[in-house]
Structure formats: C-alpha cells, structure tokens
Amino acid sequence: MEFLITSILSGRVSPRLLEQNQEFGVGSVKNFMKSTRLVLAIMTIFAGNIYAATEEQQIVDTVSTIFTAARSDDVAKFDSVISSDFYIFDGGTRFDGDSVMAFIKAQHAAGKHYEWNVTEPDVHISGDTAWIAYVNKGSISDASSTAKQNWLESAFLEKRAGTWKIVFMHSTRVP
Question: How many other CB atoms sit within 10 Å of the CB of residue 57?
Fold first, then answer.
C-alpha cells in the first residue's frame, strides 16, 4: 500500500500496480491523485501565507523593540534593531540613534515617562525591504498627570544578514 501511495504521488502508476491493488479502481486512483494534488496546492499556499505573516510579525516586533528599549533607556537593545545609518523625524527634528536616545533619557531624568504601542500595523514587504505604517497609541506621564497620546508613524526597514533593521522612522503627534 505504501508503494502504491508513493507511486501515485510521484505520478508513476503502472497498470500492473493497479491490478495488484484492486481495492483502488482507476477512477479512485484518479480521484485520489486529484485530491492529493489539491491538498498539496492548498498546503503550499498556506505555508506561503504563514511565512508572510511571520515576516510581518517580525517587522512589528522590531518596531515594538525600539519602544521597549527607549522606555527603559536600553541603548544596546535600541542599537540591536536599527541600522548604523538610522534616523527619525519627530517633532520637526531629525534625530539619529544616539541623539534620540539622549533626548529620551533627558526626558526620563526630568520625570517624564512614555508609553508606546504599535497598533493597526500595515506592513508591506518587497524582498529585503519593508515599510510599516501604524498608529502608536500611548501616553505621556509626569508627577502630576498622565495624558493619552496617539502618533501616526511609519518606518522603513531592510533585512541585513537575515535580521530586520530599522533604517528610517517618521512620527507625527495626533493633536
């Protein structure tokens, strides 16, 4: 029976083999072959979608990591997800990786705390490049209050040595 199934899957079904395995009629073998090909086609499409979803999640995770790192002043973690030529436009200013982390650390030292969350991600991948647009839903807190805040943001990423790196980001505060 195993030999019959292997032969059917490879497309090598001989009349002699069919005679030896009479429980499979010619119609049954053809239907089995059609069904098998259909199942394989569906599995291939599904596997492709899983890969795409995994890549998209990696991009969302990469952007989320930049916020986790900034929230805890973790420069090493921040640097692990950005390219060496990274920069961001935020609040009308261009920052590179070092200057944005220095700015955030100064805000933390002044008693400000930020919460950032990537929501509604819209990810587009083309080979080793990708871009993401999303709503960053969070808040800004100090000793006296917490204010909810949203930002409209986007980022451009490149896959370098198998890892997604953020090359550019843009942030616009929603009034």
Answer: 12
- The C-alpha R_g of the chain, in whole angstroms, comes to 26
- Please indicate, yes or no, if residue 77 is contained in any of the structural domains: yes
What average pLDDT is seen over the chain?
A: 85
Do 27 and 77 have their domain in common? no
Name the nearest CA neighbour of 165 among 51, 62, 53. 62
Q: What is the chain's length?
A: 175
Nearest partner of 62 among 175, 171, 163, 146, judged by Cα = 163
Token duo for residue 150: 């949203």
- DSSP code per residue over 92-160: TEEEEHHHHHHHHHHHHHTT-EEE--EEEEEEEEETTEEEEEEEEEEEEE-SS-EEEEEEEEEEEEEEE
**pLDDT tens digits, 87-105:** 999 999 999 999 999 999 9
